[in-house]
Design goal:
Shape: globular
CATH architecture of the largest domain: Alpha-Beta Complex
Strand order of the largest sheet: 20-17-16-13-12-11-23
Strand content: 15-25%
Number of helices: 22
Largest sheet: 7 strands, mixed
Number of domains: 3
CATH superfamily of the largest domain: 2-enoyl-CoA Hydratase, Chain A, domain 1
Helix content: 40-55%
Length: 708
């Protein structure tokens, strides 16, 4: 699998380990230079579609970086741009020479301008706004120019702050009007309400400033490096060390720590959630709302204050290997101060994992499996992964007498290529699942070689615009085999590329720069077994159902520079043999959707959402703002019935989960919330209607004619 890619990666590791190239060395002590060397080499030698480092790329990186650090054009002046412009055609040379002069210039100026903005917005918010003036605020930065003077900058901030404060002001007036009939209520003047609205805006800005103040030069440099990486394609990306940790946790669904989610507000770091099953949750002494003042390791005498510390740095102190302990100095909700020792353990993020439910319909029992991600641990191949979990859930559902299965891949952004091939094999005897191709290499067919079939019965797969990558591979394969009916959006996300991740630390000899992160870059494209690509086009559903995102630009085709669509030779595969007339089943479902008043209203709502989101010019007059808001609220009430919808279906947990629910109230609450969501899910209801049709028309399974 991935033979040519593996040869390239092996050569990279060997080269870096020996630290000798014809023209390059990679043990430069300067971290900036080292990072630029590594990223440049990988982009030139390993990317699926490498680009020349020329003036065109230089202009692209220049534009991307400025758009990322000042997207709304409320920091830099035209005079700053004139200085920056000198480097617009020089960045390719700087990148190839591993230099960051342009970055340093922009970064230093940005830090200066951010500090200046604090004084600007503080001054603006000291005086009341006049909401009787007829003026507007343009929210689309593409329609704005950089300002010439401080006066223009103050006015740009003034209008943006005025819009935010206008929203607060309107809310306060509405709340006061609702309380007017209360005999004990003492109303405030409009001036008092306006001042309160400005105070709220100022508070929000100061909380945002905490985030900006926590950003170090390394954080901004990562943004610059990603401006270079993303000029190759949208999925090539540099992970700073803390970002790589988060990515690994999201892919494996686990990490080592105490099992608490933290939030920083102003200078305080507080507990916002205890993860069900985690060591802090089991200990039952840490509470949501507790503020962490200090952190001490069990083998150290001195505690480290985390007041005012970056959240990422505080998290590093609290996390640690399974079996170790950490001591937190806490300020409790009641104001008391207490030291609490908490053991660390392996924490599983339950929301990452597959889960199942059983539902009765038309005297039959159907199973539902929700798969949020194609997860796997890259470091421990024997740990929990999506394939084994889905297989286990299928077995449990079969034990309950399942007659048909809905596999829910909505909002599943993908994951491991290996797991999607293995999961595809659970539904067919054997055969290809996906084809992959590297630049300059022949296609490689990735196939299921296990003749056993875990589920032979009726199968429906639910997708939407956010079903991407591995989700699209599975849906496409099942569609090509005519193994499942795909229900969902007009098309899925449209990501047909494969990425690999390299730990940059493993590639440097005698690294003294500390953790330098990892790099994810596009190395292959994948193709359906019928030869077509899902790149840009996604997977087109057999039964198209509207949703609130139908008319919004959400897919790969809406990115800046996606790789193009193409196709290759089809693989040889055998259609799933079934006497079911799939076209008839699809036609029945389409007919139900066309006649459904619920679906018609959802489509109208989607068009209205598109209209509202396309708006970019806002009135700063209270009268106009209030009138327009009232019109929108009146229009939106037409769609309230959508949230009131509820089917007559009843979803239940499997027997194996009942003992867990008795012991774990958080787990129980999450399952009940999921079941309630399914009950109100019109798309799930239609998937079950299709399963019912398939079950009534199912006469057998097997294998039929070979397709070339």
């Amino acid at each position: 699998m991935k033979r040519n890619l593996n040869i390239f990666l092996l050569s990279v590791f060997v080269a870096f380990a020996s630290c000798s190239f014809t023209t390059k060395t990679f043990d430069d002590p300067n971290k900036d230079r080292l990072l630029m060397q590594l990223i440049t080499y990988l982009l030139e030698q390993g990317h699926f579609q490498p680009k020349d480092f020329n003036d065109a790329l230089s202009k692209d990186v220049y534009k991307r970086f400025l758009n990322r650090v000042d997207p709304f054009k409320h920091y830099f002046y035209k005079s700053d741009l004139q200085k920056f412009k000198e480097f617009e055609l020089e960045l390719d040379n700087q990148i190839q020479n591993y230099e960051v002069q342009f970055f340093d210039l922009v970064h230093d100026r940005l830090v200066q301008r951010i500090q200046e903005s604090k004084a600007i917005y503080t001054d603006v918010l000291e005086a009341p706004f006049n909401y009787d003036i007829d003026e507007t605020f343009q929210s689309d930065p593409e329609k704005l120019e950089f300002v010439n003077s401080k006066k223009e900058m103050v006015d740009r901030w003034r209008k943006q702050l005025k819009l935010g404060t206008l929203s607060n002001y309107h809310d306060l007036i509405s709340e006061q009007s609702a309380k007017a009939e209360d005999a004990d209520f003492i109303p405030k003047t409009k001036g008092e309400l306006e001042a309160e609205a400005r105070a709220s805006t100022l508070k929000n800005l100061k909380e945002t400033d905490v985030y900006f103040d926590d950003l170090r030069r390394d954080d901004w440099l990562a943004i610059y490096i990603n401006s270079i990486a993303e000029s190759f394609d949208p999925h090539t990306y540099y992970f700073a060390p803390q970002d790589k940790d988060r990515f690994d946790a999201s892919m494996s669904g686990k990490y080592e720590g105490i099992g608490a989610r933290l939030q920083k507000k102003m200078d305080e770091i507080s507990i916002t959630e205890l993860i069900s099953g985690g060591s802090a949750w089991r200990q039952n002494k840490l509470q949501v709302g507790d503020v962490i003042l200090k952190v001490r390791q069990e083998d150290e005498n001195e505690a480290v204050s985390v007041v005012g510390m970056r959240l990422d740095d505080a998290v590093k102190l609290i996390k640690g290997p399974k079996g170790s302990k950490v001591i937190l100095t806490l300020k409790r909700v009641d104001g008391s101060i207490e030291d609490l020792m908490i053991p660390r353990d392996e924490i599983e993020l339950e929301e990452t994992y597959a889960k199942s439910s059983i539902v009765k319909k038309d005297k039959r029992q159907f199973g539902v499996i929700n798969l949020p991600k194609f997860y796997i641990s890259f470091e421990d191949v024997n740990s929990r992964n999506a394939t084994t979990d889905v297989k286990r859930e299928i077995q449990r559902l079969k034990n309950q007498g399942m007659d048909g299965l809905v596999l829910d891949l909505r909002n599943n952004g993908g994951g491991s290529l290996k797991t999607v091939v293995d999961i595809g094999g659970l539904f067919i005897q054997q055969g290809p699942i996906v084809q992959v191709r590297s630049t300059g290499s022949d296609r490689e067919v990735l196939r299921d070689r296990d003749q056993s079939v875990e589920w032979e019965g009726p199968l429906v797969i639910l997708v939407n615009e956010f079903s991407a990558s591995a989700s699209e591979i599975l849906a496409a394969a099942m569609q090509d085999y005519k193994r499942a009916i795909i229900i969902g959006s007009q098309q899925t996300y449209g990501k047909g590329t494969v990425q690999n991740i390299i730990d940059l630390n493993r590639m440097v000899h005698n690294n003294t720069n500390g953790d330098i992160g990892a790099f994810k870059f596009t190395t292959q494209k994948y193709y359906r077994i019928n030869g077509g690509s899902t790149q840009l086009e996604g997977v087109k559903s057999d039964v198209v159902v509207p949703n609130r995102y139908t008319y919004l630009d959400m897919g790969e085709k809406d990115q800046d520079n996606p790789l193009p669509w193409d196709e290759i030779q089809a693989a040889s595969y055998t259609l799933w043999d079934s006497s079911i007339d799939y076209e008839l089943m699809i036609e029945r479902s389409r007919d139900r959707m066309q006649k459904s008043p619920q679906m018609k209203l959802i489509d109208e709502n989607a068009k209205w959402i598109k209209k509202v989101q396309s708006k970019d010019l806002y009135s700063l007059s209270y009268k106009d703002y209030s009138s327009e808001l009232e019109q929108n609220e009146t229009e939106s009430k037409r769609f309230d019935v959508l949230s009131d919808y509820e089917s007559n279906l009843s979803f239940e947990s499997l027997p194996c989960e009942l003992p867990i629910m008795e012991k774990d109230s958080v787990f129980k609450k999450n399952r009940e919330r999921w079941h309630e969501t399914l009950k109100k899910d019109v798309y799930m209801e239609e998937a079950l209607n299709v399963l019912s049709d398939l079950t009534m028309n199912s006469l057998g399974n097997g294998l039929s004619a070979l397709k070339d």
